[in-house]
Amino acid sequence: MQNSEYHSLRDKITKELRNQVRCVPIEERKDTGVLSAELMSSICHGKYQLCWRGVDIMKDPLDLAIVQQLLWELKPRTVIEFGAYKGGSALWAADMLKMFDCKSRVISVDIDLSLLDSEAKKSTHVEFIEGDLMQVETIFPAEFLKTLEHPWFLVEDAHVNVKGILEHFDHFTEPGDYICIEDTNPLAPAVSGQGLVKELGYTLFGPKKLNELKNFLSGRSQTYMVDQRYTDMFGYNATWNMNGFLKRM
Do 235 and 185 meet the contact criterion of CB atoms below 8 Å apart? Predict the structure, then answer.
């Protein structure tokens, strides 16, 4: 391909993005996607082997690419991750933002931090907080949240008190903030390791978390809209986070 052809392609991409309707109410979105359970199972074979700096990251390649793009565009001053596990995904986000020369505060919370990898523990760019998200107001009191700079990027990956967490933070988000609710795709595996470990089989995660998201958005669908640039970057809802990339309007 000649340079002129690359320039032509870039012009077409720019035009496509310019004409794209980005943010829509969740009511305009279907609860379906182009990824089949068979394909998600195949991707999981690599997902559960994927590491960042030697630390388990528990992310699929599609969403890693999507979130990297989002972080570059948003350049959040604050990132809060609900669900730390070994700390790999928080470490990855902090490293991305550092590489982007973005001065961001990255916070990751979990009920049990004993699983943190030593590589994550020694990072000076992530703050790990141990706490029960069933008492999210205690972990993140109003006085503390008011000190955090915007824009925010919130990542819900704890699967605990989802609606309660979103309702608490709803009082403090501002226009331009983003929330990513992970694992809303009903065809995702119900148990970590499925798709990699044959003995585990493959059972569907189901619509529970997607329904929790929809319940939260009931009456708020004009306040938080689905950003279709991210949900549909690789095809309609080609993500573990079906309709789960929300922009605060």
Answer: no
**Would the CA dihedral through 78, 24, 26, 203 be positive or negative?**
negative
Which are the contacts of 149, defined by CB distance < 8 A and separation ≥ 6? 77, 78, 105
Token code pair at residue 109: 């919370």
- β-strands 224-227, 178-181: how paired? unpaired
Residue 86 has phi, psi (to 5 degrees) of -90, 0
Burial 155-171 (b: 16+ CB within 10 A, else e): bbbbebbbebbbebbee
DSSP bridge pairs for 246: 179, 226
Q: How many CB atoms lie within 10 A of CB 198?
A: 8
What average pLDDT does this structure show over 55-78? 97
In this prediction, residue 20 carries a pLDDT of: 78
Give bridge partners of residue 233 from the DSSP assignment. Answer: 235
Cβ–Cβ under 8 Å, residues 201 and 44: no
CA distance 104 to 230: 21
- For 145, other C-beta atoms within 10 Å of its C-beta total 17
Token representation of residue 103: 């001065």
The per-residue pLDDT for range 104-148, each reduced to its tens digit, is: 999 999 999 999 999 999 999 999 999 999 999 999 999 999 999
With both helix axes pointing from N to C terminus, report the angle between 208-217 and 162-170 in degrees, rounded to the nearest 10. 30
DSSP at 233: B
Percentage of the residues of the chain whose pLDDT score is greater than 90 = 92
Three-state DSSP class for 149? coil
Please say if the pLDDT value at position 14 is more than 70.
Answer: yes
Q: What is the mean pLDDT of residues 5-19?
A: 76
